[in-house]
Amino acid sequence: MDGERCACTLVPAVGKAQPTVSQHLRILEEAGVLESRRDGVNIWYRIRSDQAVQILKILDIQSIEIPISCSGGDHDER
């Protein structure tokens, strides 16, 4: 579970509306689970919390198939 993903790639992966995904990502960032960086209009997230990584290991989640970058151009996620 390394690397970072653009918020716009997470929207189709979770099947929720972009504002909903962005709000939840913001909450996870505020809780210290994620960290983010802005690159132009896109926001990139990565897992920050060692505890979150441990939970993924316990649940035997090796990887989640999410594209690395947006396919439809730039999207403003916040």
From TrEMBL:
UniProt domain HTH arsR-type: residue ranges: 1-61
InterPro entries, alphabetized: ArsR-like_HTH, HTH_ArsR_DNA-bd_dom, HTH_MetalResp_TranReg
Keyword line: DNA-binding, Transcription, Transcription regulation
Cited PANTHER family: ARSENICAL RESISTANCE OPERON REPRESSOR, TRANSCRIPTIONAL REGULATOR, ARSR FAMILY
Identification of the protein by name: HTH arsR-type domain-containing protein
